[in-house]
Write a sequence for this structure.
């Protein structure tokens, strides 16, 4: 090979090296070339964990190749509609924002997104677990080191006098696992961090709500409404997914992990596996 050709090959290799190497470095650092704006954009990451696992994740209706648990890198910043589907389970959807050089967790600071069975599975009745929470309509609520009083349908914080927090409140109780107070009236369910001055609205309904039960493990509030037992998620980003579980009875309770639902009727108790 002539010297001139050798020099051309060496020069070409140097040029390729100078172009490719920075591109690979930028890609490794999370940059992606946007064909629409013709710019290098810092990308973000989406993390999806579900219970049960091995669910399919759709991003703007495009299915991802791998199943959950799943980490999806190099997403351009912006809003995406995330949908999670698994055979036999109700789908979960939410519009989430992906931000540059940050990880967005679909499960919002929780270990997983709970997926519920489309058809709850009746099971042989076992012993109904004790309900540790006892809603009250009047009296004292001890919330850790703080004390609250429910009086005349008004929740007060004792501080050291009576500081009005919210009304109307039909019943309330302290949930020790979440360290929150669950408040409800005929049309609302709210959740109060005792260190905050106002509760978070979880649900407002035009029809009557009864028996609000928080299950912190799944990240859902269960309640009776329109003759059905329903569950609404606590994650308020975009919208809260709501699921109808089964027919309501006189009352109901849930086991600690939110796996089994016990529906109390006038003469019997029915047990269902719901996830």
């Amino acid at each position: 090979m002539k010297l001139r050709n050798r020099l051309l090959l060496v020069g070409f290799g140097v040029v390729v090296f100078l172009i490719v190497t920075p591109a690979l470095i930028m890609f490794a650092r999370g940059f992606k070339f946007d064909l629409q704006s013709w710019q290098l954009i810092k990308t973000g990451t989406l993390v999806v964990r579900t219970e049960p696992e091995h669910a399919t994740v759709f991003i703007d209706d495009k299915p991802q190749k791998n199943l959950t648990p799943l980490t999806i890198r190099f997403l351009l910043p912006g809003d995406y509609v995330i949908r999670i589907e698994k055979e036999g389970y109700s789908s979960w959807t939410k519009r989430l924002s992906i931000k540059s050089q940050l990880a967005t967790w679909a499960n919002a600071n929780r270990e997983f997104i709970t997926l519920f069975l489309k058809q709850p599975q009746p099971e042989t009745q076992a012993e109904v677990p004790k309900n540790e929470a006892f809603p009250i309509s009047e009296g004292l609520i001890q919330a850790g080191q703080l004390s609250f009083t429910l009086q005349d349908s008004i929740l007060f914080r004792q501080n050291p006098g009576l500081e009005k927090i919210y009304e109307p409140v039909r019943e309330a109780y302290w949930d020790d696992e979440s360290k929150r107070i669950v408040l409800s009236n005929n049309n609302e369910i709210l959740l109060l961090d005792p260190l905050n001055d106002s509760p978070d609205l979880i649900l407002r309904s035009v029809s009557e709500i009864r028996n609000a039960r928080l299950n912190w493990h799944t990240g859902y509030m269960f309640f009776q409404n329109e003759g059905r037992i329903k569950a609404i998620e606590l994650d308020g980003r975009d919208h809260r997914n709501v699921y109808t579980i089964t027919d309501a009875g006189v009352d109901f309770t849930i086991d600690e992990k939110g796996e089994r639902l016990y529906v109390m009727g006038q003469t019997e108790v029915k047990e269902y596996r719901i996830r």
In short: The first strand starts at residue 31 and ends at 34. Residues 114 and 218 are 6 Å apart (CA to CA).
